[in-house]
Every structure is written in C-alpha cells, then in structure tokens.
Amino acid sequence: MLTDFGIILIFFIVGMVFVAAGLITNMILRPSHPNKVKQSTYECGEEAIGSPWILFNARFYLIALAFLIFEVELLLLFPWAVVFKELGWFAFIAMLIFAFILLLGLFYDWAKGYLDWDKPEPIIPKMKDLVIWNKD
Amino acid sequence: MIDIGANFVSELYKSLGMFIPETVLVVTFVVAIIMDLIFRKYKNIAAFTVLAGFFVTGYTLFACNSSGYAFSQTIAINPFSQFFKFIILLTSIIIVIISFLSKELYAENRKVGEYYSMIAGMTFGMFLICSSTNLILIYLALETMSLSSYVLAGYTKEVKRSSEASLKYVIFGAISSGIMIYGISIIFGLTGSFDLLAINAKIATGNLSIAPLLVSGIMILAGIGYKISAAPFHFWTPDVYEGAPITITAYLSVASKAAGFAVLIRFVLLAFATPISQTQPVWQVFAGIDWKLVLAILSVLTMTLGNLSAIWQTNIKRLLAYSSIAHAGYMLMGLVIMTSAGVLAILVYFFMYMLMNLGAFYIVMLIANKTGSEEMDDYIGIGYRAPILAGCMVVFLLSLTGIPPTAGFIGKLYLFMAVIDARWIWLAVIGVLNSVVSLFYYVKVMRNMFIRGTDKTEEPLQFSRVSIVIALILAGANIYFGLWFEPIVRWVNECVKSLF
Amino acid sequence: MNEIPQGYYLLLAGVLFTIGTIGVLTRRNAIIIFMSIELMLNSVNLTLVAFSSFFGDSSGQIFVFFVMAIAAAEAAVGLAIVLALFRLKKTIYVDEANILKY
C-alpha cells in the first residue's frame, strides 16, 4: 500500500535517476577531446568580455516591474473564467472594466515614458570635426 | 454555496446600488489619471477633478442612506460605516485643499497629478475598510489603502528623508500585513469561514481551542494595530510622519487611523463579542480569552509610550507623531470597556481629533513654507512674527491637551466618563495622568512661540489671506464643537445603535 | 491510499513563515527583505490552500489569488521605492537609511 509520501518518494527517485542516467550515458558514449576554444563560454567565435557579475542597469527593474504587475493581475481572470458562462453579460462587462483599468495603467506607463529605454543622446558628427587637415 | 445565475446577477445589481459612493471614487481616480495625461499643461487639473469627485461622493453618501448587506454579505452599509466614511471624506477634502498651499509639494516644478489621484485611490480603500465584514475584503481594502499611502509618503522622492520614510513604511507595512494574513489563515482553519458573523457563530459554540484563536486574533490585531499605530506596532510612526510631506503626515494621522479604528471596532465586536441583550448596550466577550485585558494593555502601553517619548522631541512633526500615538491609546480605552457608551466616545473623540490634528499640522505646514524648518527652536518668536497663526496653533494645542472650551475637552470628557462608568477606574487614572504629561510638551511649543526669545526682532511673516482664513475656520470649528457638541453626539448615538 | 496528514502542510507553512520572519528581521539588504516577505506570504498561501482542500471550500483558494496579486503589487511598489532611494544614496542596505532617528 503506497502512501502519498510514497508517491512523492517515487517521483523524487525517478527524477534523479532520469537525470543521472542521461548524464552517465553521455559520459560513457561521448568522445573526450577538450581544447581551449571548445571550453570557452560561446563557441561561435565571440570572445566574452568582462565578468558576468556586473550590476544591471536599473532600467531593467522598471520594465520588470511593469511586466510583473500586468502579468499577475491576469491571474484574477481565472476565477472569472470559471463562472463566466453562468453570469453572462454582467461578468463580461465587469471584466471589460477591469481590463480597461489595467490598460489605462499601461498607457500611463507609456505616456510617462517609463517604457522607453533611456538611450544616450546620439552624437551626430559635424563636418568641421571630420576634416583632419585644415587649410589655414 | 452561493447559487450562481440570474438570481445572483440581480443581487449584484442591487448591491451596486448601495455601492455608489465607492463607485464614484473609483471613477474619480480613473478620470483624474486620464485628465492628467490629456491636459498636461494644466498642473492642477487632477486636483480639481478629485475635488469635484469628492463632492459628488459626499452627495451620494448622504443621498443613498439605505442600510444593509451587499455583495453576498461582504459589505455592511450602516450608519456606523457612514460616520467613518464621512470623517474620511471630510479629511480628504481638507487635505486636497491645503495641499494647494503646500510649498514643499510644489517645489522644483514637480508633477502633482499622481499625488491627487493617489489620494482618491486611498480614500476608496478606506471607504471599503469601513464597511467590510469579510476578512478577505478587509485585507484587500487595507492593502489598497496601504499601497497608495506608501507611494504618497515618498512622493517628494528627491528629498532623502521622504524616500527613506517610505522605505521604512513599506517594509514595516508588508511585514505587518503578512503577519495579519497568517492570522486570517489560522482563523479560516479554525472556523472554516472568512465572514465575521460566521466566525462569531463558530466561536460562540465554544468548541474551539483557545490557544490558536488567541494567537490568530493577536496576529490580526498586529495588522490593524499597525494602521492605528498602537504601541508594540508603532515603530514606523515617528519616522514616517517626520519624513513624509506634511500634508500626507496629516492625512495618515487622521484618515488612515480612522479606517483602522473602524475595522478594529468592527472586528473585535463582531467576531469576538456578542451583545448581552437588545436593551442592554454592553458587549460580552466569549469565554476563554480576555480580550478586554489584551486591549487594556495595548491602550496603556500606547498612550504611555507616546506621551513619554513626545517629551524629548525637538522636531515638531515628530512631536505630533508621538502625540498621535498617544491619542490612539486614549481612543483604545473606549474599546476596552465594550459598552455602547465607549464606542460612542471613540466616535465623538475621532470627530474632535480630526479637527484639532488637521489644524495643528496645517499650521506647521504654513510655518514651514516660510521658515523652511520644523525644528522646535525655530518656533521661538513665531508668536510675534505671525500672531494670528500662532493664536490658532494655541487653540489646536489646547484642544489636543483637552482643555475646555475646546473640542478636545469634549472628546476626553465622554471617553473618561464612559471608562469610569464601566468601573475601569485604574485605566481612567492612567489616562488622566497621561493627559497631564501631554500638557507638558504641548506647553513647550506654546512657550517657544510666545515666551522665549522675545528680544529677537525679526520681520513678521507674510501669509496669503486664504491660508489665514482656512486656519481661522479650523480653529473656530475647534471652539464651536467644544461648546455646541450635542448635534454630533446625537448623530453618533444613531450610528452606534446600528452596531447591535 | 493514505493521505498526507493535514498537520504536515501546516507545519511546513509554519516553518516557512518563521524563516521568512527571521529573514526580514536579520537581513540588511532591502531586496532580500522583500524576498523574505514573499516567503511569508507564500507560507500563508500554503496554509490557505491546505485548509481549503480540507474543508472542500473554494473561498480559501480565491483568497490565495488575491494574496498573490497583492503580493506582486506590494513587491512592485517596494522595489520602486528602493530604486528611488538607491538613486539618492547609492545603497540598498536598510541600515544605511538612517537620517530619521529618535
């Protein structure tokens, strides 16, 4: 007789065996000729510059925050979808209002420029900077 | 199980009819944002939209005074919630008006559209709190209010102390709301319901084990106590009150406290107590847990801590923050005794507290506009540089102390009478002693304004006529309601009856 | 088939809640504090779902939806405030936010 814990244990073991078996078979079958190019992070000829442990631009956070809000609020659509058939138009209109308010939030972000990535001002080259040798 | 179908939908329509003030607030919030986006040239367009929305809300609040339950018993519309909604709405209107005069807010050509729309959003959250009788809705409404208030506290975001205040506010707030919903989840596990009345019925059977009930009750009290800044949960109050823009400090100290008290009274009386009989205006706590003692300890701690810390403050905003903690302590006394007289006293006190606290913060704002400082030492000689405002400030401070003939006296009178009537003599004695202590630091402000440094001859401060008129109206209201308080008491009496 | 006893869910939730609380109280990094708060909220969700399935009552699960939505909103507001403070002070350590003192 299996308990619930037993099932979880079996899942656990099967999961570990599955991964381990894949890795071990690979290890046995594959040829092993390591060289420097093969062990670099990108094998497509691009050399990695600097450490990956740098601070990210704070802009990422803003975009992530906006995404987070809109994504999670959609969670509330789920209970609505369950009873949608019974409630009919009332539920539809209620959800339209909800979606409108969310959309307003997105427009707000957009209008205030929070969705723009702040690009550095492009430096447009001027003619006199390009001329190396001046006549006088 | 709720039956879903045509019947349910018609029920919803009926509920929406009782929900008009809240609906108006939401529409106000949305329209204010849209207006702010469309008419970018007009700086105050959102403010006027919000103000107009508030007046419409006020009209609908009084126009549809039907009482009953709405949205499958999650919302109770009755005179009790109407009273708190009125207090909150009035505070919001006053705050919006005095925000026009705030120099701090309009400094550096700041955009203020979000500020006003956030106030509308916060008002909506507080309206919901006042009438919710379901723990889910209480949590949701509390968060609606909190999220707006976190943003408002840090609105002047290039000022370091404002950002810092709002960070502290959001961290403490998130922790306390986390603790609160853990309590809610335990109560749900014990009783199988989120509805306060159903919880009450379950507790009344007396089959529940006491320890988890006590723990969960205290956890929920922690969440609510945070909002009213009761003693062990008050740490954020002085920092946030000092750091936030003054208008928001005043708003938090009155409106969000009002919402906190509304939900506290409802939660304790609806879930954990039962009226002894229809005729006797006394609630009885269910056997097992002595909620009265728990609340009494909270109350004593709150007022003593608030008053004793206030004595040492050198910043007037901080001083008023501690004094508002102390006032929360006084008001808790009214809940400890669990009689209708006690609840009546809380409501009367709150009305008076609104008048005096808003007034005091308003004067602090006006003076900070001119001198750029909120330190006590900079109040030296203010009595001669701005005699009218200093005079108003004296009225507010006397009212906060509770000296006749001001509004604060009436509030304290009803409160102490109710406590003594219920035979909680030691509590009343501690309350009176605390009031005496509070006199000390309020007088310190007055002394700085009038008596110290009279030899200094600085030029008088100039204030616009509008700002002086508003100050005079608030001070006048303090004295008026100190003398003619019967209408308020009569109205509040009706409100308390609806709790039974 | 034997079911996992009710108490185990609650125990796990209690342990998670405690870890979250300790994390909030001891950590200095604002981001980690918010992560700990999320942990607290998730333990509440676990409790609610456990009770909800035990009672066969869906209201607990509905509450979980709301808690998740609110948690996201709270995290967003919190992070935005941390960002605002970071721009001013170049730090996200809460004990360096110390202008306001007794």
Summary tags:
heterotrimer; A: 136 residues; mainly alpha; 6 helices; 0% strand; B: 500 residues; two-stranded antiparallel sheet; 4 strands; globular
Give a count of the beta strands of chain C, DSSP E runs of length 2 or more: 0
SS-based class of chain B: mainly alpha
State Rg of chain C. Answer: 17 Å
Question: What kind of oligomer do you see?
Answer: heterotrimer
Output mean pLDDT of chain B.
Answer: 88
Count of individual beta strands of chain B: 4
Please tell me the total number of domains of chain C: 1
Count of discrete alpha- or pi-helical segments spanning 4 or more residues of chain C: 3
Would you write up a description of this structure?
The complex is a heterotrimer of chains A (136), B (500) and C (102). With 136 residues, chain A is mainly α. Helices cover 61% and strands 0% of the residues of chain A. Chain A is built from six helices and no strands. Chain B has 500 residues and is mainly alpha-helical. Chain B has a domain at 290-500. Chain C has 102 residues and is an all-alpha fold. Chain C has helices at residues 6-26, 30-55, 59-89. Chain C has one domain: Helix Hairpins. Chain B binds chain C through residues 136, 139-140, 143, 147, 150-151, 154, 157-158, 160-161, 163-168, 170-171, 174-175, 177-179, 181-182, 184-186, 188-189, 192-194, 238-239, 242-243, 309, and chain C through 10, 17, 20-21, 24, 30, 33-34, 37, 40-41, 43-44, 47-48, 50-51, 54-55, 57, 59-60, 62-63, 66-67, 70, 73-74, 77-78, 81-82, 84-85, 88-89, 94, 97-100, 102.
List the helices and strands and how they pair.
The complex is a heterotrimer of chains A (136), B (500) and C (102).
Chain A: H1 4-29, H2 36-39, H3 59-73, H4 77-87, H5 89-111, H6 127-130
Chain B: H1 6-18, H2 20-38, H3 45-63, E1 68-70, E2 75-77, H4 79-99, H5 103-106, H6 113-131, H7 135-153, H8 160-191, H9 196-204, H10 210-228, H11 236-243, H12 246-271, E3 273-275, E4 283-285, H13 291-311, H14 316-336, H15 340-371, H16 382-385, H17 387-401, H18 407-421, H19 425-450, H20 465-483, H21 486-497
Antiparallel strand pairs in B: 1-2, 3-4
Helix pairs in contact in B: 2-3, 2-6, 3-4, 3-6, 4-6, 4-12, 4-15, 4-21, 6-7, 6-12, 7-8, 7-12, 8-10, 8-11, 10-12, 11-12, 11-14, 12-14, 12-15, 13-14, 13-19, 14-15, 14-18, 14-19, 15-17, 15-18, 15-20, 15-21, 17-19, 17-20, 18-20
Chain C: H1 6-26, H2 30-55, H3 59-89
Helix pairs in contact in C: 1-2, 2-3
